[in-house]
Design brief:
This protein is mainly α. Helix content is 37%, strand content 0%. This is S2-RNase.
Length: 95
Protein backbone atom coordinates (compact mmCIF):
# COMPACT_ATOMS: atom_id res chain seq x y z
CA UNK A 1 0.00 0.00 0.00
CA UNK A 2 1.44 3.40 -1.01
CA UNK A 3 2.02 6.05 1.67
CA UNK A 4 0.05 9.27 1.36
CA UNK A 5 2.41 12.06 2.44
CA UNK A 6 -0.07 14.92 2.23
CA UNK A 7 -0.60 17.14 5.27
CA UNK A 8 -3.88 17.20 7.18
CA UNK A 9 -4.60 20.61 5.68
CA UNK A 10 -4.08 19.24 2.17
CA UNK A 11 -6.22 16.19 2.87
CA UNK A 12 -9.07 18.22 4.33
CA UNK A 13 -9.15 20.57 1.34
CA UNK A 14 -8.63 17.93 -1.34
CA UNK A 15 -11.33 18.04 -3.96
CA UNK A 16 -12.71 21.33 -2.68
CA UNK A 17 -12.17 23.99 -5.29
CA UNK A 18 -13.67 26.84 -3.27
CA UNK A 19 -12.51 25.75 0.19
CA UNK A 20 -12.55 28.52 2.80
CA UNK A 21 -9.77 28.50 5.37
CA UNK A 22 -10.99 28.34 8.94
CA UNK A 23 -9.64 31.27 10.90
CA UNK A 24 -10.58 33.76 13.57
CA UNK A 25 -13.03 36.33 12.27
CA UNK A 26 -13.26 39.41 14.44
CA UNK A 27 -16.66 41.02 14.91
CA UNK A 28 -17.30 44.56 13.75
CA UNK A 29 -16.72 47.23 16.34
CA UNK A 30 -19.69 49.07 17.79
CA UNK A 31 -20.53 52.48 16.29
CA UNK A 32 -18.62 54.57 18.82
CA UNK A 33 -15.60 52.23 19.03
CA UNK A 34 -12.78 51.22 16.68
CA UNK A 35 -11.25 47.88 15.79
CA UNK A 36 -8.09 49.51 14.43
CA UNK A 37 -5.47 49.53 17.16
CA UNK A 38 -2.03 48.19 18.00
CA UNK A 39 -1.47 45.83 20.91
CA UNK A 40 1.15 47.63 22.98
CA UNK A 41 3.87 45.66 24.72
CA UNK A 42 2.82 47.24 28.03
CA UNK A 43 -0.57 45.48 27.75
CA UNK A 44 0.95 42.18 26.64
CA UNK A 45 3.41 42.32 29.55
CA UNK A 46 0.56 42.51 32.10
CA UNK A 47 -1.55 39.74 30.57
CA UNK A 48 -1.47 36.65 32.81
CA UNK A 49 0.27 33.66 31.24
CA UNK A 50 -1.17 30.15 31.12
CA UNK A 51 1.28 27.26 30.71
CA UNK A 52 -1.19 24.36 30.73
CA UNK A 53 0.30 22.78 33.83
CA UNK A 54 -1.83 20.52 36.01
CA UNK A 55 -1.58 22.90 38.98
CA UNK A 56 -2.94 25.86 36.97
CA UNK A 57 -6.63 26.70 36.99
CA UNK A 58 -7.87 27.65 33.50
CA UNK A 59 -10.95 29.40 34.96
CA UNK A 60 -8.74 31.56 37.17
CA UNK A 61 -6.62 32.40 34.13
CA UNK A 62 -9.71 33.53 32.21
CA UNK A 63 -10.91 35.70 35.10
CA UNK A 64 -7.48 37.34 35.48
CA UNK A 65 -7.27 37.85 31.73
CA UNK A 66 -10.70 39.53 31.75
CA UNK A 67 -9.74 41.86 34.61
CA UNK A 68 -6.44 42.93 33.02
CA UNK A 69 -7.94 43.53 29.57
CA UNK A 70 -10.95 45.39 30.97
CA UNK A 71 -8.79 47.67 33.04
CA UNK A 72 -6.37 48.46 30.19
CA UNK A 73 -8.79 48.87 27.25
CA UNK A 74 -8.53 52.37 25.74
CA UNK A 75 -11.81 54.33 25.70
CA UNK A 76 -12.22 54.33 21.91
CA UNK A 77 -11.35 50.61 21.40
CA UNK A 78 -13.89 47.77 21.35
CA UNK A 79 -12.99 45.68 24.40
CA UNK A 80 -14.18 42.37 22.95
CA UNK A 81 -11.97 42.73 19.88
CA UNK A 82 -8.99 43.70 22.06
CA UNK A 83 -9.52 40.55 24.16
CA UNK A 84 -9.75 38.35 21.07
CA UNK A 85 -6.50 39.76 19.69
CA UNK A 86 -4.67 39.59 23.03
CA UNK A 87 -5.85 36.12 24.10
CA UNK A 88 -3.32 34.07 22.10
CA UNK A 89 -0.54 36.01 23.85
CA UNK A 90 -1.71 34.65 27.19
CA UNK A 91 -0.52 31.14 26.38
CA UNK A 92 3.05 30.03 26.99
CA UNK A 93 4.53 26.72 25.93
CA UNK A 94 5.24 24.27 28.75
CA UNK A 95 8.84 24.60 29.83
Amino acid sequence: MAMDNRTIKELSASGLVNAVLICIQYPRATLDKTDKFELKSSLLYHIPKYHGLSMEDPNKHLKEFEVVCSSMTPINVDGNILKMKAFPSSFVEKG
